[in-house]
Specification:
By secondary structure, the protein is mainly beta. The protein is about 10% helix and about 55% strand. The protein is built from four helices and 13 strands. It has a 13-stranded antiparallel β-sheet with strand order 7-6-5-4-3-2-1-13-12-11-10-9-8. It is globular and about 50 Å long.
């Protein structure tokens, strides 16, 4: 698994985590959202992911913690942490930092990126990766306007309509994850009614988006995951509104991979609203 699985899981996570900004009255306060997800491969549970988002005025901070294992860790045990920060503007997110770390199976690694004025200014990967000569190189021009997976996940779509507004599916998200440069092209598919649970603050309806994975650079042409994800029409993301905000956050995703069908389903969402800043 290691970095390959981290990337697949994070792509799946960002496919479902598309949201907007809070209302204007949050300028002097902080709102905290905690969302938990169950992650499965076919019918086998891999583990869970928790995203904690803090919003204050136009600033955002997000942290994601994942734990994935096979047979209770006897065959494999992987822990991942991802984080991002930046600002939300009327034109979209402006990330400043992004990081990803993983440890498991006797291996570990870390990736860090910095952004300024809408482009990547620094990239650090430990341990250093050996580039395959067949890899399609990433150009500086392709990085202009591209955002990291956290910014892409949480700050792209918004709507004042809480009832599964399919307009949130009308967007193409340019992403650079430190290795791959790709676009996620979302389009409306359908609206579905959800059964509300006490552990979630979601609205009653989900906007189901069809997602097209469009690889651009940073990958090897014969990468099996690239081939599967770029040639399937089965990628879906279900977006739901958080009451009291114009945010759309994840509920469910489907992502075919070379190893099987990766899915993530929300098990709980907690909103801790408007705590005054010190």
């Amino acid at each position: 698994m290691r970095l390959v699985w981290c990337r697949a899981i994070l792509i799946g996570s960002l496919l479902v985590c598309c949201s907007g900004a809070l209302a204007e009255d949050s300028i002097a306060t902080e709102t905290r959202l905690v969302a938990n997800y169950r992650v499965d491969l076919d019918n086998f549970n891999l583990g869970s992911f928790r995203f904690t988002t803090r919003l204050s005025a136009s600033d955002y901070r997000v942290r994601g913690d994942g734990h994935f294992s096979i047979l209770g860790g006897l065959l494999y045990d992987l822990r991942t942490t991802t984080a991002g920060s930046g600002k939300v503007t009327s034109a979209g997110p402006e990330p400043t930092t992004y990081s990803l770390s993983y440890a498991g199976g006797g291996d570990s690694g870390q990736l860090r990126m910095s952004f300024d004025a809408g482009t990547v200014t620094a990239l650090s990967i430990v341990p250093q990766q050996t580039r395959d000569p067949r890899e399609i190189p990433v150009t500086q021009a392709q990085l202009v306007g591209a955002i990291d997976p956290i910014a892409a996940a949480f700050f792209r779509a918004r709507s004042d309509d809480p009832n599964g507004d399919l307009k949130v599916c009308d967007q193409t998200v340019p992403v650079f994850d430190g290795g791959w440069r790709y676009d996620l092209a979302l389009s409306p598919k359908r609206k579905v009614a959800l059964q509300r649970k006490a552990s979630t603050a979601y609205s009653r309806y989900a906007a189901v988006c069809r997602v097209e994975f469009k690889p651009i650079s940073g990958y090897e042409p014969d990468d099996p995951n690239i081939k599967v994800m770029s040639h399937t029409d089965a990628i879906e993301v279900w977006l739901v509104s958080v009451p009291g905000t114009d945010m759309y956050v994840p509920y469910h995703i489907l992502l075919p991979t070379d190893s099987g069908l990766l899915s993530a389903t929300s098990t709980s969402l907690r909103v801790e609203g408007n705590r005054p800043q010190p």
